[in-house]
What we know:
Layout: H1 4-11, H2 25-36, E1 47-52, H3 55-62, H4 69-73, E2 76-82, H5 88-104, E3 108-113, H6 117-124, E4 131-139, H7 143-155, H8 164-167
Antiparallel strand pairs: 1-2, 2-4, 3-4
Helix pairs in contact: 2-5
The chain binds flavin mononucleotide (FMN).
Flavin mononucleotide (FMN) binds at residues 13-14, 16, 65, 67, 70, 110-113.
Amino acid sequence: MDTSAYATIKGLRVTRSYLARPLDPGDLEAILEAGRWTGSSKNRQGWVLVVIADAAARERLAAAGDFTDPIRNAAAAVALVKTADGNDFDIGRLAQNLMLAAATRGVGSCPVTLHHTGVSQRVLGLPDDQSCRFAVALGYPDPVAEEAGRALRRAAGMWGRKPPDEVIKPGPDLDH
Ligand SMILES: Cc1cc2nc3c(=O)[nH]c(=O)nc-3n(C[C@H](O)[C@H](O)[C@H](O)COP(=O)(O)O)c2cc1C
């Protein structure tokens, strides 16, 4: 049994504090390649991944959401553009694949909501039939700042997961 994929999946946590270091091209390429191979409904692949490393451009994209500091702090943001034949489930899978692939290479990540899709559409120069509600921030974790942020979230109870019996239920017994 290969347990390393399971460990990466279970160990994935968002990173919001990053070192001021650009992504190695090999890391970025591998992360994007994992995204490209994401499965999608009817294999439509209704997405475009827009990579934004430039700080001023990230700042403009950050204005499209309400909790976008990870985009400002990151080495790069990948805007997940949904094309006319895309859907939200596939975009979620895409984001998770990017994040898991990033984790395998020591790159931290955070999904970020772009609440104001009119702004993201303008910043990214998208046509009317495309939209962008989510981005993934990427960068090498700053261990000290990250741990401080996590300690705050732990103290505020914003940590961990609901217990199994709250989120996993037996289905109806259809034999009776
Ligand atoms: C759909 C989605 C949108 C999110 N949007 C934001 C966001 O806008 N800003 C942010 O800092 N974190 C955002 N997050 C990160 C969540 O807050 C994070 O996944 C959650 O608190 C669990 O964190 P953990 O996996 O480190 O335990 C988002 C996560 C998801 C799945």
